[in-house]
Amino acid sequence: MTKKAKRQKLYYRLKDLENLSERERKRLENLTVDEALEQLDHGSPKLNWIYVILAVTAIFFIAWLVIENNPRQEEIPPNTIDEMTEEISSMHEEISSLEQRISDLESKMP
């Protein structure tokens, strides 16, 4: 890119960037064309940090909303506990009856 083309590109970029403060404009005018174009392409470091902080805040806020709206069921309903207790006791009875049958069958063998 020729020097004239670079200057023209810089001129149009500065003309379009109305939201730049007066201080930033003067600083860009004092830089060389290459440095000014590089600075404009990379953006303001302060603005970049603001974007990063906003993004992190948004991520934590969304995570918090998901956690609050979808709570885990940490408590087991009482009727489930009673059902489980009955199942366990019936399994113990079955095991006892099977052990008794095994011992009866072993005693019948010669």
UniProtKB/TrEMBL annotation:
Q: Which residues cross the membrane?
A: 49-67
Feature: compositional bias, Basic and acidic residues: 89-110
Q: Which UniProt keywords apply?
A: Membrane, Transmembrane, Transmembrane helix
Determine the domain of life of the protein's source. Answer: Bacteria
Keyword Transmembrane recorded: yes
For region Disordered, the annotated ranges are 88-110
| Stated name of the protein | Uncharacterized protein
Query: From what organism does this protein derive?
Result: Aerococcus sanguinicola
What are the leading ranks of the lineage? Bacteria, Bacillati, Bacillota, Bacilli, Lactobacillales
